[in-house]
Amino acid sequence: MKIDLSGRTAVITGASRGLGEAMAKALAESGARIALVARDTKKLESVRDAIAKSGGAAEFFACDVTREEDVTRLMNEVKQRFGAPQILVNNAGINIRKNLVDFTLEEFRSIIDASLTSTFLMCRGFVPGMKGSGYGRVLNLSSIMGHVSLPGRSAYSAAKSALLGLTRALALELAGDAITVNCISPGPFATEMNTVLINNPEANAQFLAGVPLGRWGDAGEIGSLACYLCSEAAGFITGTDILIDGGWTAR
Questions:
Q1: What pLDDT score does 74 carry?
Q2: C-beta separation of 30 from 5 below 8 A
Q3: 37: how many CB neighbours lie within 10 A of its CB?
């Protein structure tokens, strides 16, 4: 199905690499103008240039989305460049893998802030501009670690589980404005974060033995899902979470 997002503007956090980059490129290919948001300006510039080379329209904005003053500045800059966006993809997040008793409070808060607090700040800032147009889309990136977990993922699982609750509540708050709010929960994807594991044949084979489809997800697959959820065709989908994990959580 051809998705046409022409005339729409999408703000995407964590857009400098990985799944954020993939979603940005997919939405741009569907016609949306893209506001790329992250802290690494060099990588953002590279993504912007790749989108432009493919005929898309994008601009990048350096921002720490865990800081209220940065998000306020971002709102003003994006509005000046593109007007009020209709699509918001909250993809920012970090992970520190260690046992809970070994965490410092600062480390724990940094993970919660990167995924959860940033989503709160971005939604509070950008959602009001979506009202009154009869269309709006918010996508929050959770994780399979919001549904199941592993040792050493306590803070990350807590943050991603909280996003599921935030998504459901916000979906109910915004339903009357025809703004949908959904989560995407990715499983194992072949991104930069997993390069070390992928390049280790023995460890890679052992890991994939636990994935029913027997392979890593391709970043383009999450881009396609994001495009659909942002389309008019998905207007009756809200307050839910879509797992894209190769069957991991079905075991």
A1: 98
A2: yes
A3: 31
Task: Please determine, for residue 72, whether its predicted confidence score (pLDDT) is greater than 70.
Answer: yes
CA 105 – CA 103 distance, rounded (Å): 6
> Which one from 156, 189, 216, 248 is the annotated catalytic residue?
156
pLDDT digits (tens, 9 = 90+) for 163-191: 999 999 999 999 999 999 999 999 989 88
What distance in Å separates the CA atoms of residue 8 and residue 235, rounded to the nearest whole number? 15
Would you say 113 and 68 are in contact if contact means Cβ atoms under 8 Å apart? no
User: What is the amino acid identity at position 3?
Assistant: I
Which tens digits make up the pLDDT trace of 77-98? Answer: 999 999 999 999 999 999 898 9
Q: Assess contact for 181 and 238: CB atoms under 8 A.
A: yes
Whole-angstrom Cα distance, residue 174 to residue 131?
Answer: 9
- Cβ neighbors of 59 (< 8 A, separation 6 or more) are 34, 35, 36, 48, 81, 82
The C-alpha R_g of the chain, in whole angstroms, comes to 17
Q: Is 228 a catalytic residue?
A: no
Residue 194 has pLDDT above 80, yes or no: no
